[in-house]
Structures are given as structure tokens and as C-alpha cells.
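Good morning,

Attaching, inline, the C-alpha cells for the sequence recovery test we're adding to the shared suite. The designed sequence is right after.
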């Protein structure tokens, strides 16, 4: 810290010199004449230990050439005592691994150099071109950079040494100056618990960055100076953008350095900047510039968070175990409840075919109920109901409106008339036949509907049995098709209207969904074409450090398109959910209409009127839910006798 903030009088000339001569900067600490161990303990140790808990970390040395960045980061290679942050961090990591018996920690290393906007793998020099690529979740990685697993400190130090050698050899061979390159030594760790079978594990990346000299010297080789000045000023711009909360865009992609450090310069990463400065007055200009950068960096908000992942293989194993346990539990419950022959496995093709057949018969009106024994069967029944074929078999859509029988339009009035007439002509049943309900085929089913905020819920009571429809011997009831038309205009009017309303809403939602889908696809096509234009433009300007005006316009356009895409896609998802919801309501209304119709039809045409009267006045007995035989037994119990020869029921089966 340089204390004071004032202007001083030039005594020799006897005039006030308006030049600033003292500055004040806020930093977290000053390491003056501090031994390397203290530097490591204060700067790096907390970051390294946090990395083993799953937090990313970045330590960056910034300052003018010769100010001690490499000394701080790597240390004096020949002196063990003066080793820097990297070797000490490696020692600490392996010491911790030995100490933490309860975890398996794997370590990998990489060593990247950025020289004149070119990426160099110091652990595999000359291996080929590398690029910085964005990863899902906001991270970045250098494609092509070699990652080296290491199992002990010695191997790790050897790799560090190898990397340093590559850097020196590169300097000689290519006649370049390593002071003018940035170096990023990265330690990647993954920590899994040994004791628990938990599929969760944590990972981290620690970037130890030795930046190129920050001075804006002009005595260097021109190209180097341009690149260094540009990449450091882009670094400064990025830091400025990160400190400004109003800025939406942070220009990470402007240089290889900021792009490679995208996930290390803020956000969820522990970050420490070491500002290396000369303690000499002659270097004051560079020192002030370095400290200005440091105090800006201090304003960057960070919010470190653990990188937690789930191992898919372990997770699947855990879920398989859970399924096994639940199956055993189900088996036990079946034994306790004395249920035999239950199967909870995936339905076979034969079982699916059987359900399809039952649904078809049900829709045709030839089956009063569908037998269901498991959740899988319920799902399959609903799936079959949803199939267009399943619905069309018996009762289908009429001109896209409402839900009706194939008899519609001009026939409608005639059908209603005929149905009413048929009802008038209906004679009282002429007695039960000997093949009426037996103990085995006596229905024990119950199907109740309840309204909850306009939606309909189904309650099942197990087990379900099939019931057999009855037919009249002497007088035939109206056909189901005719009766259904009649029903929709009378008792079923309300539910039919709700069904129509729901269908109208569904059609509206579907139209909106179609428009949104078209819109999203159009934006996607625009994004693709802009991206390919951008790629072409980049190919032309390969190696150029600055973004051209046309390229910038494309980038801005792409950003705008992506924002649009995101918003429209979100709207599309919302509408899709609405469509599904409406579709469910429509399905439920259809089933409700059909079920009410079945009940009404049975009551209206298959029970003698006297029985109907009793059932209706019974109060607690809900018409349509009581099996026919029980109703008849009830009638005989209360003494309402009717002579058996007059009635004649014949089982349909
Ligand atoms: N705190 C220190 N104690 C002892 N020697 C130091 C210290 N800091 C730097 N040095 C020495 O100063 C010289 C220059 O330091 P160093 O190479 O670390 O500078 P630099 O900032 O990395 O420069 P460049 O930008 O060229 O990479 C080295 O010989 C180094 O050993």
C-alpha cells in the first residue's frame, strides 16, 4: 500500500507541483520481505484446501517484468527453500490425500502457455492446435490440452519441471521471450467418499496463473508488445465489466487469456490476485498501474460454490437396489393382504393386447368395466383411451366438434325422436331368466367421479370384475348410438358442454403452440446462419487480435437472437404444458361422459321402473353404482313383489 494522497510543493523551484505524488489503494495484505512459506500460507493455502472440498480456485500473479511473478508462482528452481506456490500446493494436495482416508482423491495436471495469442501445451509441446471451448453450465476447457493423472508429489513435480523446460526450450528454439507469455498451471481434483455408497462426488480446478509482464514498454519486439498489451488490456476490460453489475455482457472472448480464464475470473471461484511490484521509486508509474488493477480486481464479486456431481453408474446401481427393495416390500404386502398372482412387471404384448380389446369393447358399449390390477395396467388403459384408433372404434369425433356417435348432422333429430319413442314404447321387463347374475359374475365394482376445480378424479376400488349387460327379452331398448345422442341433449348436456369448451380451449392452445414452434424454429435457423457467417468471418480473420466491425455486428446479432430464442422457447414450454393439461381435461371429460352414459343407459333401459324409483328415493344408494342383482334383492326385501314370470332377463354372454 502506498500511503497518503496529496500533492507536494516543489521546494527547489519554489512552486506548487500539481503532479500526484502519493496514492492510496485497498489491498488485503502486503508481503514485504516475506519468506516463500508465508507467501504460500497467506495467499494459496486456503484456496488449495478449499479445492479439495470442491471449490474452484484461481491465483494470479500480475505485475511488470522482473517484479517477481515467476518467483512467487514457481520459485527459484535451484533452491528448495525458495520454492514457490505451485510446488508447495502440490505438496499440500498429496499430504491431504494421505491424511483423508475416507476419500479417494484423483489429481490431474495441465500446463498451458499463451504466447502471441497462440496456445501451447507445455506438457505435450507441438501436439497440435488447441482451442478454448465453452462447456455446458458456463465452464470452459481447452480442447486438445493434455491432462496428466499424477499419483504422488514426485510425479507432479517432474511434470512441473518438464513444463518449465519446454518453456525454456521454446524460448531458445523460436527466439522468443517467455517474460512475454502467460502461463496457466492447473490442478484438477476429484474427490469421492470411500465410506458411503453415495453417487455424489466433488471436483475442482485450481488455476495458478503467471501473467506476462504488464509494462507497456515499446522496446520489445513489436508483435509481442501488441499482443501482450492487448491481452492485458482485455483482461482489465473483463475485470471492469465484472465489477459493473449493470453490464450484461462480459467480453471474455476478446482474447485467449480471458476466454481460457472465463470460469476463473469471478463467479463461483475463489480468486486471489498477487500484485508484484518493485519497491523502487523509478518504477512508480508501473507500480501505480499494477496496484490500480489490483484494487479493481478487489471489487469483483465472487460467490464460490461446491462443484457437486452425480456418478451416473453408481446412481443407477443405487436406484436398482432401491427398486429391488421396493419389489420385495410389495411382495410382502401382497402376502400379508392375501393377494395372489399379482404381477408388477412390465406388461407383456399379450397383456397389452388384452387391455386394448377391453377398451375397444368398453367404447363399443359391450363391456361395463375394465379389469385393472396394477398401476401399469391403469397406465395402459389410459394410453389405449388416448389412442385415436381406440376412440374411433366405437364412438368417434364428429366434424371436429364435441363428442358423438357416427349418427349426427341431419339424422340427429330423427335419432332423438326415435330414442324418445323407444323409451315410451319400453315395456316393463318380463322377469329374470335362469341365467341371470350368479355369485361369480356378480359385479363388485365401483367407479366414482368427483369434481375438483373443474378437473375430474377417478377413484378405483380393487378388485374389478366384468359385469354382463342385460338385454330385454320382450322389448328391445334403443340402440346405444341413438341413446347416446339423446343423453347428450338431456342428462349429459352439462358434461358435454364442458367437453366442448375444453376442446375449444385445446384447439386454441394447439394453434398457439404451432405458431410458437414455427417462430422458435425460424429463430433457430437465423442463429444457425449467423453462426456460420461468423465462423466464415473468423476463418478470414484467423490470428487477428481485434474483432472487426462486421464480426462484432454478427456477434451482437447472435446475442440478440439467442435471447429471443430463449424467451420464445420458454413461452413454447409453457404453452406445451397448457396443451397437455387441456388434453388431459378433454380426455377426462370424454371418459366421464361415456361412464355417465353407461350408468344412465343401464338404469334407464335395463332396470324395471319400480326398481329405478326405489333406487332414486333411496338417498344413500347412488343409482348406477349398485349392481342389478343387489338392487333386485333390495326390492324383494322391502316387499315390493313382482311376479317372476313377467320378467325375463337374459345374460348377454
Ligand atoms: N522476493 C524475491 N526474493 C528473491 N528474489 C526474487 C524475489 N522476487 C524476484 N526475485 C528474483 O528476481 C528475478 C526476476 O523475478 P521473476 O522472474 O520472478 O520476475 P517476473 O515478474 O516473473 O518477470 P517476467 O515478467 O519476466 O516473467 C529472478 O531472478 C528472481 O529470482
Amino acid at each position: 500500500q502506498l500511503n497518503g494522497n496529496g500533492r507536494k510543493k516543489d521546494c527547489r523551484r519554489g512552486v506548487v507541483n500539481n503532479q500526484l505524488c502519493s496514492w492510496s489503494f485497498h489491498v488485503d495484505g502486503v508481503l514485504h520481505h516475506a519468506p516463500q512459506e508465508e507467501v504460500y500460507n497467506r495467499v494459496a493455502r486456503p484456496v488449495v484446501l478449499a479445492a479439495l472440498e470442491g471449490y474452484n480456485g484461481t491465483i494470479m500473479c500480475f505485475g511488470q517484468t522482473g517484479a517477481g511473478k515467476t518467483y512467487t508462482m514457481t520459485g527459484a528452481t535451484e533452491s528448495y527453500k525458495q520454492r514457490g506456490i505451485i510446488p508447495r500446493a502440490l505438496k499440500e494436495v498429496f499430504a491431504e490425500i494421505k491424511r483423508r482416508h475416507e476419500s479417494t482423491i484423483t489429481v490431474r495436471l495441465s500446463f498451458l502457455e499463451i504466447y502471441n495469442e497462440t496456445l501451447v501445451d507445455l506438457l505435450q509441446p507441438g501436439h497440435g492446435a488447441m482451442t478454448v471451448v465453452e462447456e455446458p453450465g458456463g465452464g470452459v476447457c481447452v480442447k486438445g490440452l493434455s491432462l496428466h493423472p499424477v499419483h504422488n508429489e514426485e510425479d507432479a513435480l517432474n511434470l512441473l519441471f518438464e513444463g518449465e523446460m519446454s518453456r525454456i526450450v521454446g524460448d531458445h528454439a523460436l527466439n522468443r521471450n517467455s517474460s512475454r507469455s502467460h502461463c496457466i498451471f492447473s490442478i484438477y481434483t476429484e474427490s469421492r467418499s470411500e465410506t458411503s455408497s453415495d453417487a455424489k462426488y466433488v471436483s475442482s480446478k485450481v488455476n495458478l496463473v503467471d501473467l506476462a509482464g504488464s509494462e507497456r514498454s515499446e522496446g520489445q519486439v513489436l508483435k509481442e508488445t501488441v499482443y501482450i498489451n492487448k491481452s492485458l488490456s482485455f483482461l482489465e476490460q473483463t475485470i471492469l465489466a465484472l465489477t459493473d453489475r449493470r453490464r450484461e455482457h462480459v467480453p471474455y472472448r476478446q482474447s485467449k487469456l480471458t476466454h481460457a480464464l472465463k470460469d476463473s475470473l469471478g463467479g463461483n471461484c475463489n480468486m486471489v490476485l498477487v500484485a508484484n511490484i518493485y519497491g523502487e521509486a523509478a518504477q512508480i508509474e508501473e507500480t501505480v498501474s499494477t496496484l490500480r488493477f489490483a484494487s479493481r480486481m478487489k471489487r469483483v464479486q465472487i460467490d464460490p460454490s461446491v462443484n457437486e456431481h452425480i456418478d451416473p453408474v453408481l446412481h443407477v446401481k443405487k436406484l436398482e437396489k432401491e427398486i429391488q427393495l421396493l419389489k420385495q416390500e410389495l411382495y410382502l404386502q401382497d402376502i400379508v393382504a392375501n393377494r395372489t398372482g399379482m404381477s408388477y412387471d412390465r406388461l407383456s404384448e399379450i397383456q397389452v393386447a388384452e387391455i386394448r380389446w377391453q377398451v375397444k369393447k368398453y367404447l363399443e358399449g359391450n363391456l361395463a368395466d375394465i379389469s385393472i390390477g396394477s398401476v401399469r395396467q391403469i397406465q395402459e388403459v389410459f394410453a389405449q383411451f388416448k389412442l385415436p384408433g381406440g376412440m374411433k372404434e366405437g364412438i368417434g369425433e364428429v366434424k371436429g366438434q364435441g363428442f358423438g356417435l357416427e349418427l349426427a348432422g341431419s339424422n340427429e333429430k330423427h335419432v332423438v325422436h326415435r330414442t324418445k319413442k323407444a323409451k315410451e314404447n319400453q315395456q316393463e321387463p318380463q322377469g329374470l331368466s335362469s341365467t341371470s347374475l350368479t355369485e361369480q359374475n356378480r359385479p363388485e365394482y365401483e367407479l366414482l367421479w368427483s369434481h375438483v376445480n373443474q378437473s375430474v378424479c377417478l377413484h378405483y376400488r380393487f378388485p374389478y370384475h366384468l359385469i354382463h349387460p342385460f338385454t330385454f327379452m320382450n322389448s328391445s331398448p334403443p340402440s346405444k348410438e341413438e341413446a347416446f345422442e339423446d343423453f347428450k341433449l338431456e342428462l349429459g348436456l352439462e358434461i358435454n358442454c364442458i367437453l366442448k369448451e375444453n376442446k375449444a380451449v385445446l384447439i386454441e392452445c394447439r394453434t398457439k403452440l404451432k405458431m410458437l414452434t414455427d417462430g422458435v424454429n425460424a429463430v433457430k435457423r437465423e442463429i444457425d446462419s449467423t453462426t456460420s457467417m461468423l465462423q466464415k468471418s473468423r476463418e478470414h480473420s484467423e490470428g487477428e487480435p481485434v474483432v472487426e466491425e462486421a464480426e462484432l455486428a454478427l456477434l451482437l446479432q447472435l446475442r440478440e437472437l439467442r435471447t429471443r430464442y430463449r424467451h420464445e422457447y420458454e413461452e413454447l414450454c409453457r404453452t406445451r404444458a397448457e396443451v397437455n393439461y387441456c388434453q388431459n381435461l378433454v380426455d377426462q371429460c370424454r371418459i366421464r361422459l361415456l361412464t355417465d352414459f353407461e350408468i344412465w343407459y343401464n338404469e334407464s333401459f335395463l332396470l324395471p321402473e319400480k326398481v329405478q324409483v326405489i333406487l332414486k328415493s333411496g338417498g344413500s344408494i347412488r343409482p348406477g353404482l349398485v349392481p342389478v342383482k343387489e338392487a333386485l334383492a333390495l326390492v324383494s326385501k322391502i316387499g315390493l313383489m313382482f311376479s317372476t314370470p313377467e320378467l325375463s332377463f337374459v345374460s348377454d354372454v
